[in-house]
Write a structure and sequence with these properties.
The chain is mainly alpha-helical and 226 residues long. It has eight helices and four strands; from the N terminus they run ααααααβββαβα.
């Protein structure tokens, strides 16, 4: 993380750069109705997936939001308490956490590939985004940035992962299922940001983009219990 570099080497000007990036993404990609952040934003509004008025892509992809909230809670580890933008970043984290809790699946405790369209045919409960949200929510609650509802949501999400995504294979090997292999915008003709695109990408077992945040989520859940 750039904030870790800034703290380690005393180059504090990088804290401002990181803060501006976090604030810019919320300003440009936040949906005022749901509070969620769209997957992408095009300043030029020229990409085929971009809304001609806002420049935002049309959907909320789980793992994109997951990277953002995990980055925020890690940035706060290194950002000075007296940094003028720290309070705004905590506010962004709190608002987005509340929005995520609103779209958490009530039955499983997990989150969907396309976050706000859980009832739409083809959508599915996705392991990497769920793991990222569990990690960020649990860590945020542990550090006092978020309330007890965030920790409860994290615990329900982790229970859902164990129940629905963990599989014990031959020889006692444990596998994590239901991981979106990849998703992107614009660099290939079919990456048009449509709902059909997101739910049509390959689903993998044990993809590192899911396994790594799952391990981090497990550690945060354990830390919260201590």
């Amino acid at each position: 993380l750039l904030t870790a570099y800034a703290r380690t080497f005393g180059e504090h000007e990088w804290f401002d750069d990181v803060a501006n990036e976090i604030l810019l993404m919320e300003k440009r990609s936040r949906d005022p109705k749901t509070g969620l952040l769209y997957h992408g934003w095009d300043e030029s509004k020229e990409q085929r997936w971009a809304n001609p008025e806002t420049g935002c892509s049309p959907h909320f992809w789980g793992r994109a939001v997951g990277w953002y909230v995990m980055a925020i809670v890690d940035v706060l580890d290194d950002m000075p308490l007296d940094h003028p933008k720290r309070g705004e970043i905590v506010g962004i984290f709190w608002r987005l956490a509340e929005a995520l809790i609103e779209v958490q699946d009530a039955e499983s405790g997990m989150w969907y590939q396309v976050l706000d369209q859980g009832t739409r045919e083809g959508n599915y409960l996705e392991a990497s985004a769920t793991s990222m949200f569990v990690c960020a929510l649990a860590k945020g609650a542990r550090h006092g940035y978020l309330g007890g509802n965030a920790l409860e949501a994290a615990r329900r999400g982790f229970a859902g992962l164990i129940e629905r995504c963990i599989e014990e294979g031959s020889g006692g090997h444990v596998h994590l299922n239901h991981i979106c292999g990849v998703a992107g915008l614009g660099n290939k003709p079919y990456r048009d940001g449509s709902f059909e695109y997101y739910v049509g990408e390959v689903i993998r077992q044990d993809d590192p983009k899911g396994v790594a945040p799952f391990i981090m989520a497990a550690l945060e859940i354990e830390a919260a219990q201590g």
